[in-house]
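Q: Hi! First time asking for a complex rather than a single chain. Here are the components, and I think there are two in total. Is that enough to go on?
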Amino acid sequence: MCAVTLALAKGRTADRMMELLAKAGIQFPDFHATCRKLVLNSEDGTIKLLFVKAVDVPTYVEKGAADIGIVGKDTIMEEQPNVYELLDFKVAKCQIVVAGFEGKQPEKDKVITVATKYPSIAERFFVEKGIRTELIKLNGSIELAPLIGMSDVIVDIVETGSTLKENGLVILETIADVSARLIVNKASFATKTIQIQQSIKSLKGVLE
Amino acid sequence: MYTDYRLNDENLIDYQKYEQIILTISKRFMTYGYTRIQTPMFEQYDLYTKVTSSIHQNEMMKVIDGTGQVLVLRPDVTIPITRQLAAGISELRNEYRYFYVQDVFRQTFDGQGNSQRTQAGVEYFGVSSPEADAEVIALSCQTVTDLGLQDCKIEIGHAGFFNELISEMNLTATQVKMLTKMIQAKNVTEIESFILDLPIGEKVKKAIMMIPFLYGKPEEVQYRAAEIAFTPNLKNKLEHLAKVVELLKLYGLEDYLVLDLGLINHMGYYSGIIFQGFVEHIGKPVLMGGRYDQLGNEFEAEIPAIGFACEIDSLIEASANRLVESPIQLDAKIIYDSACISQSIQLANELRDQNYRVLSLPSQKKVFNHQQSTCTIYLEEASHSLLYQEKKTPFVNSSEVVRLLEEERGTYNCVL
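A: Yes, that's all I need. Here is the structure of the assembled complex.
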């Protein structure tokens, strides 16, 4: 039986997922807190784990370099890969929101400037609302943009809201709820059906 | 792209694979009675905008001709063939089986700029029946297994099944689009929250919720799907699928089949059975097809049809390590002394007439040619001989060489 390749987003999601995997009885003997290995094999040889950057997980899965992947809904929404999205782990929960200064709701009659790590999500959201925007793509510290007058609002993920609060920003609108999801390559689902369904089943068992 | 022909170049090897695969596929298509055709490289832009929901206009490569008319580089083959056929007949009185091996052009936005792809496909215009569907699906499966890809899976669905459910739901175009996306992603969580608030009956809700799970071995899926087939139309569609599956078992293809009632093709012209083929290690379908009985209506004709197309580049990638490559491109090399030039040319011609691949080289220039050949023929002033598998056999005239080669032909690797 050949192994199922699993692409896991490094960082926040990875730590929680490793716990879940361990609960599901999938052990990685080589894994420890300071582990720098990028490829790990599970004890029973059924799963080959790849640690990749979160935004790249959809790419690995869509191209078939990994059969399945675990990644946040925010990344899936941004990249829109052609894959199956079979499971919601309901962990690593947060929200994608529009945030800005209190009482300054985006309005239809003027162009607003939006700073974001998620240009595609932001664009779709505002186009649907009929609000014209100018997008600024940033890679971190998004909250800074409105403070220094570079943008009117931001589109970003919010977990507790404390960063927003400390910088005097509020949530103006919620775009979507985010949590870790399981995505599957469509070809792998056809050619490795049994192995993949087995992995999903054992993960599902842990969630309930 | 296979334009670089340096010796031992990867491109050269790739191109040989490309040819070998096309040859194998064409042969298979012909064994089912298909005739090869070709369609023009340039097509009217209007042809593709007329056929609704087929190819997005952004995907097409546009060209403007001398008179200011907008043309496109052939983005698909099915539509022009159907149009052509519809122009001649308004109603089908005879069957037509055509196949093609051509490049199609689509603008892709994945940043790799690969806008040219070779497709090999068939179109079968004939009465719609489970037998016709099974025959075409069997052909698609056999085409892939012919290439040594034994692990292939053919996913079969029905375009009408989801459409029928949609028609029961009275949704806006945007809602249909959203739901289609969720079904394509088998996103159970979001489907659930999406239909929760919709003013639709419990039966439809249950059916929609079930769709992502209607995937797997044909019998199991049929059994589970029967529960949600609450209209006669849905039942008909399931029965049709069941018949096709039964027929495919007769073809001996049971192990290759997967039923997927959540399969929705992005080509909007499919109306009946749809299918796609996957092989291991390739992340996208290597072939796609389906029944498109209504496409002819767009051109005022009644032409039931079914077809599929294979992606040659994906098949080359998939069979990369499985095809037995023959590195030997020559059957015989004739090395002659300058005095024997006339015999050499004569012998080479005789052998070529018999379809052997032959090179003739003067002995002082043989160092410049490194191509391998199955045997070597030496025409020296003193004597003539044939070297095959380290065994040197002398001969006097050309008919003897032909006979010697003929004897070896059983184990011989030559083009015939």
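A: Helices of chain A lie at 12-23, 57-62, 73-79, 119-129, 144-147, 162-166, 186-191, 193-207. Let me know if you'd like any chain examined more closely.
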